[in-house]
Design goal:
Blueprint: H1 3-9, H2 21-39, H3 50-57, H4 64-74, H5 80-93, H6 103-115, H7 120-140, H8 169-182, H9 189-194, H10 200-204, E1 211-212, E2 217-220, E3 235-238, H11 242-252, E4 264-265, E5 268-269, H12 271-285, H13 291-304, H14 309-316, H15 334-344
Antiparallel strand pairs: 1-2, 2-3, 4-5
Helix pairs in contact: 2-3, 4-7, 5-6, 5-7
């Protein structure tokens, strides 16, 4: 202890560091550096809070739920999938410090999902959601630990997939006509989805300010009630044919703020509720086809009119598969988008 520091600290400093010898040695060296920095001022010494300094050396401990909240607050993603995965995992393995989870915890999680009847693709998505959270935790907390979700094999992965059905043009026209004559705002979603290729939440969560009926355009962009699935999902789409007619009807039934106010509850877009209501009708009248089949059908219809693949991805807000070059620029102008949608559209007569 330097003589000029004795007045502040006394003849010596006693502080418990760690029960682990190697860890205690490392803490002692770091503490010495801090104290020597304080003692370098021979005229005026600022006392060091030794206890607080030692505590700052120790790794932070976080519960999985805490680090997950931090991760989700930083990421602009649809929070439903990771929250569903997180809730199930914590119910099985407990809400523990992130460094405590093991491969056995993950295998228990996978077995539970399989026994509950989840498809292997769903299981993989749940694993990926949790793996991303733990990767973030290990990086932020400087933990030298292997992620227990990494390189996990799922027995029979991919063997339980099925090809989603598509609507015929006759089914689409029949459904559109029925939707427009039914007086049901929910059924209007069929032509709105079928003729734009949008995801259901993108339409159900539209604000009226996102709709331009003078120019027959909709602007798909995030808002306070719902996020978008990917950055590519932000786009502007023309309304043609049945989509224009259905949008005009839907706007008349809106509340002046939201296109489908019945599905905006507590500031959140309840797209699942709209999906359940729409699918009840679609499955009954169209041999089990669902709202998401409309999106797949649109992709086939665009292929059939020789729409460029990059433009198909732009229309549907899909992640572009054409390489990094396709991400440059602003994409196809709305006039070109409208041209291809008109060719692919279901005609009213």
């Amino acid at each position: 202890m330097p003589k000029h520091a004795v007045r502040i600290y006394g003849d010596f400093i006693r502080q418990a560091l760690s029960k682990d010898p190697d860890e205690a040695e490392a803490y002692a060296e770091r503490l010495s550096n801090v104290l020597e920095g304080s003692w370098s001022a021979t005229t005026r010494i600022t006392p060091v809070d030794v206890v607080s300094v030692v505590e700052s050396f120790k790794p932070r401990s976080y519960l999985l739920s805490e680090i997950a909240e931090e991760y989700l607050a930083l990421r602009k993603i649809d929070q439903t999938p990771p929250r569903v995965a997180l809730s199930t995992f914590i119910s099985l393995a407990g809400d523990r410090e992130v460094s405590d989870y093991t491969r056995e915890d993950v295998k228990l999680f996978v077995r539970h999902l399989i026994l509950r009847g989840n498809k292997t693709a769903t299981v993989r998505r749940r694993i990926n959601s949790l793996s991303a959270i733990l990767n973030y935790a290990y990086s932020e907390l400087d933990l030298d630990k292997r992620n227990p979700f990494t390189r996990l094999m799922i027995q029979g992965e991919g063997e339980d997939t099925f090809k989603r059905g598509v609507f015929t043009r006759e089914q689409l026209k029949q459904g559109y006509d029925k939707a427009l004559s039914s007086g049901s705002t929910v059924k209007l979603l069929m032509p709105l989805l079928g003729e734009t290729g949008c995801r259901l939440a993108e339409i159900v969560g539209l604000r009226l300010e996102d709709i331009d009926l003078q120019e027959d355009l909709i602007h798909i962009r995030p808002n306070s009630a719902r996020r978008l699935k990917t950055p590519n999902s932000t786009r502007t789409l023309p309304l043609v044919g049945y989509a224009k007619l259905a949008m005009e009807r839907a706007v008349q039934s809106s509340d002046g703020q939201w296109l489908f106010p019945r599905y905006i509850k507590d500031g959140t877009c309840k797209a699942t509720h709209a999906s359940n209501a729409l699918n009840k009708w679609l499955k009954r009248d169209f041999d089990g086809l669902t709202a998401h089949c409309l999106r797949h059908t649109m992709r086939d219809r665009l292929r059939a009119v020789e729409c460029p693949l990059e433009l198909i991805d732009q229309i549907g807000g899909w992640r572009c598969r054409m390489g990094i070059g396709s991400l440059y620029g602003d994409g196809y102008p709305v006039q070109i988008v409208k041209k291809h949608l008109l060719v692919a559209s279901i005609k009213e007569k």
